[in-house]
Amino acid sequence: MARPFTVIGFTMFFTLALVFELGHKAAVVILSAAAAAFIFSLFFKSVRRDFVIPTACITAVIAVLLSFAAALVPDEASQRFNDGVHTVKASVVSLEEQSGERYYTELKTSEIDGEKYKLNIRLSSKSRLGFKPYDTVEGDLQLYDIGKTRDARNYYLSENIFMGGYAKGDINISQPERKPIGYYPLAMRAYIKNTVSRLIPGERGALATALLIGDKSNLPKSVSDSFSSAGISHLIAVSGLHLSIWCLFILKIFDIFRLRRRAGAIISAAFVIVFMAVSGFTYSVMRAGFMMLVMLLGTLLSKQSDSLNSLGIALVIMCFVNPYCVMSLGLRLSFLSTLGIIVGYGNIDFPLNPYIARVRNKYAKRVCEFVFGSVRSTVLACAFTLPVMILDLGKVSLIAIPANLISDLPASACMILSGLTALTAKFSFLRVITAGLADLSGVCASFLINSSKALAAVPHSSLNASSFMFPLWLVLIFIVLAAAALIYKFSGRNTVRAAVLICMLTFAGVCVGSSALSRTATVITVADVGNGSCRQLRRQKRFARLRRGQLLCPLKYRVRNGQRRRG
After folding, report:
1. How far apart are CA 124 and CA 212, in angstroms?
2. Do the Cβ atoms of 166 and 124 come closer than 8 Å?
3. Mean pLDDT, consecutive 10-residue segments, the chain of 567 residues?
């Protein structure tokens, strides 16, 4: 078996995703099917020799057992503490963040009702409580199950949050006698956020902070919505892209000054660990971080690491740490986009490669390779993340590829410049350099904000993929690609281009059909308006608004926020 961790990691990831999506009954079926398939595979000598199928079956069984074990803690916590007031002693393990009119902080308990009990709680409050990293909090909290639906519950469990709570009475806050190691990444995150916001004011600073450490608490919703509509929202969710840019930046500095590459690998590895901690150990960053550490280890040992095996190792580690990580949307997008680039970049011929090879000027050739390499990576990432966009988000950006090509370079520059701004701000004698870096970072942020709003304003820039036709299209695509793979295996004929053409033509047909069906549908939009809710009805080009059962004046503009329902 050439890539054992690829088989183990991918099987574990998809098995856990199926179990948590479908529920406990499906888990029993998957466990039984995997155990039966393992026993059945042992009767075939060729299968035993290759050992791919038996390994996948054993991994599936382990994944189901992991899901059962992972459900024990939240189930026990729900039974013991739900809908009750409990005396809690806990530590603050996140920065206080505002969402709407409320403030949220993550607490890790050490005692509940005088008994030692470790549990992660999301504390909600109407006003800012002034928590600092790893403050000790003591008081009575009303605890409740967080997440009313299975999807919402799984989301919070993927974030390692088991219950919600709010204070019943006064809370005592004290600083710990000795600062734990987890204090320093949180303190660094707070310093970066405050420094960048102070030196780059307004929405530009909020965007720079989001690009640098993934903190979107101060980012205006209009900017976030424009990034989402343009298909570039991944830029403000710290992921492997950000980590890769920083590591390449560090290694490039070592190359410029002709320093030893192994020393650069050691420093890059240390930076990867610090970056993961400062960014809050988000799953997309951890996936990239573990892959990067494996690659850097290969550099230290003078060995070439395998990208697919590295991806599998990262998935195995994260699934064992928290099996619910597979429900993280960020990890799904990060995993699939990375898989697409790894599988497709070297194995699929790019139509313009022969023309690039004819360019004689080496500088022009490098520019062409960079531009068309970016195009190829973007296309592959968008293609492989399409199932998540359709099934999880219900929306597909039709301008994601040009939007990413326009935004990637300015976003990288803004991130590096804002990081250097926070670094140089620690030294007063570098005040002039700090101001210059902050201005340049602000210029990049302004470009990103204006370009994202312009792209989001393009008519039909995004497509509502909530129609039943899109999941059916995904099933068809899997059948087509499986058929292409079987044809190549048994006859040697490469039918990839034909399969891609079928995918593109059927996707265009689905888009047209979905658009035609939506014209006759009535869309109900429910929006939160602070002290109540407002319902908007839309059918074709006619709009009406309802509140407390009364029909109000027709609307000219579509309500952006809320949940849509077709009928």
Report:
1. 26
2. yes
3. 83 91 86 89 76 88 91 86 88 83 88 88 87 87 84 84 87 84 86 90 89 83 84 76 74 71 77 81 76 76 76 88 86 83 70 70 74 78 83 80 85 88 89 91 92 84 78 87 80 76 85 72 56 58 57 43 38
- Contact between residue 508 and residue 534 where contact means Cβ atoms under 8 Å apart: no
Whole-angstrom distance, CA of residue 338 vs CA of residue 161: 27
CA distance 483 to 293: 37
Handedness of CA 564, 159, 94, 91 (dihedral sign): positive
Q: How far apart are CA 487 and CA 87, in angstroms?
A: 64
Partners of 112 in the β-ladder: 88, 115
Q: Where are the beta strands (DSSP E) in 28-74?
A: none
Question: C-alpha distances in angstroms, 297 versus 158, 239, 292?
Answer: 29, 21, 8
CA-based max dimension of the chain: 75
Tell me if 274 sits within 8 A of 185, measured CB to CB. yes
Residue with structure tokens 């996707």? 507
Residue 3, classified by CB atoms within 10 Å of its CB into exposed (0-12), middle (13-18) or buried (19+), is middle
Instruction: Enumerate the β-bridge partners of residue 55.
Output: none
**Burial zone of 466 (CB within 10 Å; 0-12 exposed, 13-18 middle, 19+ buried):** middle
Do you know the residue count of the chain? 567
Q: How far is CA 239 from CA 242, 332, 336, 350, 399, in A?
A: 6, 11, 13, 26, 21
Write out the DSSP string of 392-443. Answer: II-EEETTHHHHHHHHHHHHHHHHHHHHHHHHHTT-GGGHHHHHHHHHHHHH
* pTM given for the model: 0.79
Instruction: Supply 418's token pair.
Output: 């804002």
How does DSSP classify residue 390?
I
**How much is the pLDDT for 149?**
79
Question: Can you tell me whether residue 233 is helix, strand or coil?
Answer: helix
Would you tell me the crossing angle of helices 24-41 and 52-81 to the nearest 10 degrees?
Answer: 160
Helix (H) / strand (E) containing 58: helix 52-81
Question: Whole-angstrom Cα distance, residue 306 to residue 402?
Answer: 30
Q: Six-digit token pair at 173?
A: 């806050």
